[in-house]
Structure to design on (260 residues):
């Protein structure tokens, strides 16, 4: 622990010259940034101030790095982010998405908050738990979003108080909207395309719900608009006809397979 602290202090000293002239921030802000960073997964992995704040080829110091500074190490996250509604404007070379541009209800205080990696992640602490619910609610204010904390999923997260990976209990906004996916090579990454599981709607059933619920329970929940609006605050009451058909078919099949 001591050596991390020492390293932090050394970096801070090294960076003082630069920050005073280029970043132009006060000592108190610098101290607090350094403290967040020194306890982060980045510090443990030797990802330092200059890893993000310095352009690799020009060596120029960047005051406010953007998503491109993350790209060399987190390509999958950056690439998927740029494909969803959150990131597509940046991919198309437009200004960042802000709540001011939205059709959905948004928090007034976040009107001009720009969508980028740091909209959800405190880029210096990079803790993932605050990114999973609290960050979303700094901008989103529709009924579905506001109902999450009173849902069974929300209560269970609060009881658990952590994001163990993978979890069979915790279901955050991100579990449904930024699902974890396993690549062919077996690495698990968070798919940052926030529109991926929305269309078609039953994609979420397969990608997300069925990790924890049965197919029927999941379908009957996700096609019930009131239940979605309540953020799944009660068991499903819908009973889909197509499911009865699927079940009948399955029974028929298993009946046949008994003789094999
Ligand atoms: C993982 C990448 C990353 C690392 C590591 C990192 N930063 Fe940052 N830093 C950023 C990003 C991105 C921003 C811009 C955030 C924003 O736009 O709000 C930023 C913003 C800042 C700012 C604020 C600039 C302003 O105008 O408010 C300061 C100061 C700063 N960083 C200093 C540091 C110091 C010192 C370190 C090392 C202890 C460090 N950063 C490590 C990515 C990083
Ligand atoms: C030089 C490589 C490098 C750069 C640049 C970098 N990271 Fe990381 N990042 C890592 C490593 C290594 C880890 C820890 C191992 C892991 O969890 O994959 C990590 C972990 C993370 C985590 C997970 C933390 C946790 O507690 O699980 C987040 C979130 C993250 N980085 C965000 C960012 C963002 C946002 C940027 C750009 C502003 C960025 N990183 C830039 C290498 C980098
Ligand atoms: C809409 C909010 C949001 C935005 C924007 C966002 N993230 Fe994330 N990110 C999350 C959440 C939430 C998690 C943790 C999800 C989980 O573990 O279930 C996460 C996890 C991660 C992780 C660690 C897990 C993994 O995939 O290995 C990395 C690295 C990461 N994000 C990088 C980035 C980068 C780089 C950007 C910008 C291109 C970015 N994030 C933008 C919300 C966001
Ligand atoms: C900086 C503010 C901001 C943050 C933080 C943020 N969002 Fe968004 N999000 C938006 C805006 C703006 C839109 C576009 C809404 C519109 O066009 O009406 C959007 C769109 C969405 C959509 C697509 C809605 C649709 O109908 O297409 C989903 C899903 C979503 N966000 C989920 C999340 C989740 C989950 C988080 C947290 C992990 C999050 N957002 C964090 C601002 C934000
Ligand atoms: C258990 C899964 C689940 C959880 C948890 C969840 N959502 Fe959703 N979300 C959905 C589904 C399903 C839809 C509806 C998709 C559709 O209409 O096609 C949706 C729709 C949305 C939309 C679009 C709303 C609209 O009116 O078009 C936004 C924005 C959103 N969610 C944000 C959030 C935020 C923020 C949280 C956490 C505070 C959250 N969601 C938690 C499953 C979930
Ligand atoms: C990580 C596991 C996990 C995921 C993923 C998950 N859930 Fe759940 N869900 C739970 C747990 C645990 C409960 C509580 C069960 C209990 O209380 O017996 C629950 C409860 C529910 C309830 C009942 C709420 C109540 O008040 O009784 C509904 C409806 C629901 N989930 C729908 C969904 C839908 C739809 C999805 C996918 C969009 C989903 N869940 C994804 C774990 C999960």
């Amino acid at each position: 622990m001591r050596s991390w602290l020492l390293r932090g202090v050394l970096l801070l000293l090294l960076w003082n010259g630069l920050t005073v002239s280029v970043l132009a921030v006060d000592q108190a802000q610098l101290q607090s940034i350094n403290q967040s960073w020194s306890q982060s997964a980045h510090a443990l992995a030797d990802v330092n101030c200059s890893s993000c704040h310095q352009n690799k080829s020009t060596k120029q110091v960047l005051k406010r790095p953007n998503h491109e500074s993350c790209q060399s190490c987190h390509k999958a996250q950056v690439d998927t982010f740029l494909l969803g509604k959150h990131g597509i404007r940046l991919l198309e070379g437009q200004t960042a998405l802000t709540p001011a541009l939205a059709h959905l209800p948004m928090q007034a205080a976040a009107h001009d908050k720009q969508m980028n990696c740091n909209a959800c992640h405190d880029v210096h602490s990079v803790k993932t738990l605050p990114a999973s619910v609290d960050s979303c609610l700094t901008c989103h204010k529709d009924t579905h979003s506001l109902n999450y904390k009173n849902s069974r999923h929300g209560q269970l997260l609060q009881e658990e108080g952590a994001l163990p990976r993978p979890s069979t209990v915790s279901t955050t906004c991100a579990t449904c909207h930024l699902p974890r996916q396993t690549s062919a090579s077996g690495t698990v990454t968070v798919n940052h395309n926030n529109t991926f599981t929305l269309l078609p709607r039953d994609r979420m059933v397969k990608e997300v719900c069925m990790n924890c619920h049965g197919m029927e329970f999941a379908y009957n929940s996700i096609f019930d608009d009131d239940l979605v609006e309540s953020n799944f605050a009660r068991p499903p009451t819908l009973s889909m006809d197509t499911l009865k058909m699927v079940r009948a078919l399955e029974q028929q099949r298993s009946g046949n397979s008994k003789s094999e």
User: Anything to note?
Assistant: The chain has a mean pLDDT of 87. The radius of gyration is 22 Å. The CA atoms of residues 123 and 172 lie 20 Å apart.
